[in-house]
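Exercise: predict the fold of this chain.
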Amino acid sequence: MELTWHGHSTWHVQLGDTNLLIDPFFDNPKTEMDPEEVDPDYVLITHGHADHIADVDRFRDAHVVATPEIVGYLADEYGIEDSTGMNLGGTIELGDAFVTMVRADHSNGIDTGYGTSGGMPAGYVISDSKPTQESDPESTTFYHAGDTSLMVEMREVIGPFLEPDAAALPIGDHYTMGPTQAAIAVDWLDVDYAFPMHYDTFPAIEVDTDDFVREVKATGSDAEVVVLDGDESFTLDGDAY
């Protein structure tokens, strides 16, 4: 599984022949990528804030996945009809990927952050095998936490039952978790790799990623913190590109 961070919360996940793009927002200081260079099969939206859906209409050949409320909004406002509405706890098969929508603790006003509700905000767990109660050591699984605070669901559900190998977690504070809560999340999830995201885009979320590294070590977690440059890729089996 190849993971590419395009800054903020925008991730490109390649799994087999399937390409997924999460929260397309390319107007951020960490990326030099032209959205036209990205050709996803699927676009996953965690919630409706403008810094997560801003570029969704640049990918009209892709199939969009989000809550029913956001799917309806994108159809009404952007004319995007090729979509699937799903909700928390559901798992769907998208090409070579199994995608589970999980809870995120955040607000979800659409577009501006106010007004119309986008339903529950979400994160996504993406795996090459369908999640079951039987542990599968051969599976490869990536957790995109969306915009969230620390929540016990990470410790009680996502970590032990969905078993992510790696997690992308917001660390920018102010609007989401900061480095301390994100580090606790790393420990609770029991992942091998932790990627910081949702930081340095705006003045309010400027942080030092070294703080996150120190906080993860302070939990006693064995996870490796991988701080990617914008548009840098990582292969989840441990070999960075």
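Check your answer against the key: The chain has one domain: 2-229.
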